[in-house]
C-alpha cells in the first residue's frame, strides 16, 4: 500500500539515521563504537530522553553515558558517525542533568527533527525489547545479545530471537452525508473532553482492512466503507506499528459507544476540530507525535 502524495509523513515515520543494518553482524561493532570518542549516544531513562532544547535531543559521548545500560547500535549519522543507544529502565533520578531537561517520546516526538525523531523511536523500540525480553521464551534460559543489540541467541536451545512488532490499525471516520464532520471516540481510561481516532491490534489471520471494519464496529457501532490507507509509524507503547486509515461511515446515525473501552462517540464539525487543534476549546485531541494527530489534522486541512 502507498499513501497518497498529499499526505505528510507522521512525525515518527520520517527517515532519520542510516540504520547501516549490514554492519550489525560485524564482530565487535558495538564495542568498537563504544570505544570511539566521536560516537554519538542517545541515553534513555524509561521512555524519556535528554533534551538540549525543547525540540532537540541532547547527545553525549560514550564515556558520559551510563555504562550499566543496555547498549545497541542504531546506525550512522549523515556524516558517517556511529550512533548508539544506551537504555535504562525508568528511574526517578535522571541519569544526568540535561540542558532542557528530559522528555518522553509522547511529549516531544512531534517537535523533533527527522533525525532526532527517528533515532528516538528506534532507540525506544529496540531498548524496550532489550530490557524486557532477556530470557528465551521457548526454554527460559538467559539469552546472549548478538548483532550489536538486534538479536538474542539462546545458548541452551539454540534459538534466535528478534525484536517483536505488533501491527495495529487506527482510523478516523468521516461522514458520507456531511463532508465537514468527523467521528471520534473517548476512551474509558481518559479524563475530560479527550477524543481520538479508533484503534486496535490486528488479530491472527486478519487483514488490515478487516481489522479496521471490526474495530470500528466493535467500538463505535458503525459499518464502514471506502477504507483508505494514509500512512504508518512506529509507536513503542509497547511495540506497535500503527497503520493509519480514513474510512466513511455507512450510516452516521448508527454511531454508539460500546460503553466499555469507548465511553463516548461524537460527530465533530470541522470548525470544532480546528479549535481543538489550535488549543482554543475544551476539546483535547491527540498530541503531535501520534499518527492520530496526523489523521485528524490532514482531514481538517483537506489533505485527506
Task: Please characterize this protein's 3D structure.
This protein is of the alpha+beta class. It has 6 helices and 15 strands. The longest helix is centred in the middle third of the chain and has 19 residues. The radius of gyration is 21 Å and the shape is globular. The N terminus is likely disordered.
Shape: globular
Our measurement of the CA-to-CA distance between the termini, rounded to an integer number of angstroms, reads: 16 Å
Instruction: State the CATH superfamily name of the largest domain.
Output: Nucleoside Triphosphate Pyrophosphohydrolase
Radius of gyration based on Cα positions: 21 Å
Q: Helical stretch count? A: 6
Report the top-level CATH class of the largest domain: Alpha Beta
Biggest sheet statistics? 6 strands, mixed
The fraction of residues in strands falls at: 25-35%
Number of strands: 15
CATH architecture of the largest domain: Alpha-Beta Complex
* CATH fold naming of the largest domain: Nucleoside Triphosphate Pyrophosphohydrolase
Sheet/helix structural class: alpha+beta
Q: Which residues sit in consecutive blocks of at least 5 with pLDDT less than 50?
A: 1-6
Give helix % range: 10-25%
Amino acid at each position: 500500500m502507498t499513501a497518497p502524495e498529499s499526505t505528510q509523513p507522521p512525525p515518527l515515520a520520517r527517515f532519520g539515521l542510516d540504520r547501516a543494518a549490514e554492519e550489525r553482524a560485524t564482530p565487535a561493532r558495538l564495542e568498537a563504537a563504544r570505544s570511539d570518542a566521536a560516537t554519538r549516544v542517545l541515553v534513555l531513562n524509561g521512555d524519556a530522553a535528554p533534551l538540549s532544547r525543547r525540540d532537540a535531543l541532547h547527545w553525549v559521548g560514550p564515556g558520559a553515558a551510563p555504562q550499566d545500560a543496555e547498549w545497541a547500535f542504531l546506525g550512522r549519522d549523515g556524516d558517517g558517525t556511529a550512533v548508539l543507544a544506551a537504555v535504562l529502565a525508568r528511574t526517578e533520578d535522571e541519569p544526568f542533568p540535561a540542558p532542557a531537561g528530559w522528555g518522553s517520546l509522547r511529549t516531544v516526538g512531534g517537535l523533533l527533527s527527522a533525525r532526532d525523531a527517528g533515532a528516538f523511536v528506534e532507540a525506544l523500540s529496540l531498548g524496550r525489547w532489550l530490557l524486557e525480553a532477556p530470557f528465551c521464551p521457548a526454554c527460559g534460559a538467559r539469552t546472549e545479545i548478538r548483532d550489536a543489540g538486534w538479536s538474542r541467541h539462546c545458548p541452551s536451545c539454540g534459538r534466535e530471537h528478534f525484536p517483536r512488532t505488533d501491527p495495529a490499525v487506527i482510523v478516523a471516520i468521516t461522514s458520507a452525508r456531511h463532508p465537514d464532520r468527523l467521528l471520534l471516540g473517548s476512551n474509558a481510561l481518559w479524563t475530560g473532553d479527550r477524543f481520538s481516532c479508533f484503534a486496535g491490534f490486528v488479530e491472527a489471520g486478519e487483514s488490515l482492512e478487516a481489522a479496521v471494519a471490526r474495530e470500528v464496529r466493535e467500538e463505535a457501532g458503525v459499518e464502514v466503507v471506502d477504507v483508505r490507507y494514509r500512512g504508518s509509524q512506529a509507536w513503542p507503547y509497547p511495540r506497535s506499528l500503527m497503520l493509519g486509515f480514513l474510512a466513511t461511515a455507512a450510516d452516521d446515525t448508527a454511531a454508539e459507544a460500546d460503553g466499555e473501552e469507548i465511553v463516548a462517540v461524537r460527530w465533530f464539525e470541522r470548525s470544532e476540530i480546528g479549535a481543538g487543534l489550535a488549543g482554543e476549546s475544551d476539546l483535547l485531541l491527540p498530541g503531535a507525535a501520534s499518527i492520530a494527530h496526523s489523521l485528524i489534522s490532514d482531514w481538517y486541512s483537506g489533505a485527506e
